[in-house]
């Protein structure tokens, strides 16, 4: 009696634990390959921004722009006029300066005073920017507003370009360089996260199935908050307590850590230049028979001397004759059958039996597609 009562209590506890687990807000996970939400999507509005400007490099050792490039002398003239120096274009008859285009990338939420790297590229006929210093340069965005200021000595990463009248030598690219932490942020770039009362996730790879799975995962944690509005966008309405800028960070952090299994189109990618083949796990083929063999043709050319016979006329001479030998060798081709619904692992094992090379695999996959047996997208690079 006590034994039966013990089993009954144990069974009731087990049922209670299972019911509690099933009713919990554990995110839904499909399949076995799990990724975080942050690894397959991004928050709309949170992005990097690019800045650009043009400036003047000074301090070069005769490797700057020539006087035929008038833009540089005019730029130098403008720089010195801002300093109160009255000059003309003819005052800058020197190859110690160069005009450059300055670009930079600003991460989201960058604040005034933050430092960023800048990249400089020569726009004139300068031979090298080695040893140059960038003069105070403003960087603006696509809206023509100034967001950063750059200045400082640049590095070209070990490149150089030297030579004389008859020859020159170059290592790497000496007409581009960078200044690590060479610019200060002067103005914050606004970041818009809310669209109404909602935020939006943008999938890196557009897919309806992945969008629905992500929606289910978010709704499992915050019921009724997510809606897949397209194959690329999921709109999430945070609970009321998270709808402020100081709390939305916590909400987005929780969403980004949720596990989800992304889906993918069955695809075989072939790079004929490098002999690389990459196939996804969803690739399937119908029943197909594959025969693989190789044909080797060897052609040898040689010359032989033909001497006159003992009783040949006196006019007979020695002749040089060409001899060609052609050998043909063809390996026996075996017919192998790969069953219907075979996975990429089955395909790999079957083709390895044939001893095929990556180059042969390319031709085989293309032939399987032409036969209508490849249930995947074939991408040639």
What does the model show?
With 381 residues, the chain is an alpha+beta fold. The chain folds into three domains: 35-45 and 192-260, Gyrase A, domain 2; 49-160 and 172-185, no CATH class; 267-293 and 334-380, no CATH class. Helices cover 23% and strands 34% of the residues. It has seven helices and 23 strands. The strands form eight sheets. It has a six-stranded antiparallel barrel with strand order 3-4-5-10-7-6. It has a four-stranded antiparallel sheet with strand order 2-11-13-12. Strand 8 and strand 9 (168-171) form a beta hairpin. The protein starts with a helix and ends with a strand.
Q: What's the overall geometry?
A: flat
Q: Runs with pLDDT <50, length 5+?
A: 1-31
Distance between the termini: 74 Å
Strand proportion: 25-35%
Question: How is the largest sheet built, in terms of strand order?
Answer: 3-4-5-10-7-6
The percent range for helix content is 10-25%
How does the helix and strand content classify structurally? alpha+beta
Quick description:
The protein has 381 residues and is α+β, with helices and mostly antiparallel strands. The chain is built from 7 helices and 23 strands. The chain has helices at 2-23, 37-40, 70-82, 208-221, 245-256, 344-353, 358-370, and strands at residues 35-36, 41-43, 49-58, 98-106, 115-122, 133-140, 146-153, 160-163, 168-171, 176-185, 199-203, 226-228, 233-236, 259-260, 267-271, 276-279, 284-285, 288-292, 295-306, 319-330, 334-338, 374-375, 377-380.
